[in-house]
Amino acid sequence: MRRWLLTNTTYGTWLPGDRRGSITSVRDLRPDDSRDAERRFEHDMPGQPWEPEILGLNRAAKEQMNGPPIYFNAEHAEIVLAQFQETSTHRSWMMHAIAIMRDHFHIVVQVAGDPDPKKVLADFKAYASRVLNRRFGVPPSETWWTSKGSKRKLVDDSYFANAINYVLFKQPQPLVVWSLEKGRLV
After folding, report:
1. Backbone angles phi, psi at 41, to 5 degrees
2. DSSP string for the chain
3. What is the mean pLDDT of the chain?
4. Could you count the other beta carbons within 10 Å of the beta carbon of residue 113?
5. Domain coordinates in residue numbering, the chain
6. 33-46 b/e with 16+ CB inside 10 Å = b?
7. How far is CA 132 from the centre of its chain?
8. Looking at 56-70, 83-97, 118-132, which range is the least confident one?
9. Strand duo 25-28 + 35-36: pairing
10. Angstrom distance (rounded) from CA 1 to CA 60
11. Could you tell me whether strands 94-100 and 39-42 are parallel, antiparallel, or unpaired per DSSP bridges?
């Protein structure tokens, strides 16, 4: 059994090179063994620093967008919450906490076995996209979400408790907050 803190932003709301920092694939031009080599790193593990603002990268990311940024309202958040709950029930996953904000969501989820967290996050996003598309139409970008998202393994009870606390009580202006123990909080 695994427990994860899954996070994803809505399309176009937190681009590579953002002034707030970003988890971005960056080049490292340091020598690799005996030859100079360009390697790419993605600092996406807990404890690793985010990349600072990179103006050129942010500008290039904006130029590649296929539509405007997507921001949720209360109706979107309600639909996404209901679909996340349905998805977790269908997959026999146990959600412990959810927060949905205008531009991102967090889920603390427990899954049987050791599935790839990319698949778990992808299932939540895919099923939510289907219901959003039916209700609001397909967005110009043809997606509601950024492509990857964060998948942090909660390795022990302390990480698990801290993640739940973070999701339930430390989110800026949440549209929806829900917990397994208390139900809907916002």
Report:
1. -125, 145
2. -EEEEEEEEBTTSS-TT-TT-B--EEEE-SEETTEE--EEEE--STTPPPB---HHHHHHHHHT-SS------HHHHHHHHHHHHHHHHHHT-EEEEEEE-SSEEEEEEEESS---HHHHHHHHHHHHHHHHHHHH---TTS-SB-SS-EEEE--SHHHHHHHHHHHHHS-SS-SEEEETTTEE--
3. 89
4. 6
5. 2-13+68-184, 25-63
6. eeeeeeeeeeeeee
7. 17
8. 56-70
9. unpaired
10. 40
11. unpaired
In the numeric block, the tokens 């970003």 are attached to 22
pLDDT tens-digit series, residues 139-155: 999 999 998 899 999 99
CATH 3.40.50.720 fits 2-13+68-184, yes or no: no
| Cα 134 to Cα 6, 19, 118, 130, 131, distances in angstroms | 24, 34, 24, 6, 5
Report the C-alpha gap between 38 and 31 in whole angstroms. 8
Q: What single letter denotes the amino acid at residue 174?
A: P
